[in-house]
Amino acid sequence: MADARSSLTPSPLSRTEAERLLEAVSAALALPIPPLGLPGTLDALVRLSEAAALLLAFPLGERDEPAPVFRP
After folding, report:
1. Number of compact structural domains in the chain
2. Domain-located, residue 70
3. Which long-range CB contacts under 8 A does 13-22 form with residues at least 24 apart?
4. Residue 58: which pLDDT band, with cuts at 50, 70 and 90?
5. Res. 1 pLDDT band, cuts 50 70 90
6. Which of 35, 44, 49, 51 is most buried when burial is the number of CB atoms within 10 A of its CB?
């Protein structure tokens, strides 16, 4: 049985979903994407959604909080 958090974790975008999203955002922002740039932009969008899904799937406990100061 999956916990509530796993049902809220988004899955990566499919190529078709990325195309629809890019088309909608491009129209909403009145930002045309040149045909030569479209394949690379779609590839990047899909890869970014995969990376985001990995990060969002990382389990955090109830008491986990960000550090007050980041020190690498």
Report:
1. 1
2. no
3. 13/45, 13/46, 13/49, 14/46, 15/42, 15/46, 18/42, 18/45, 18/46, 18/49, 21/45
4. confident
5. very low
6. 49
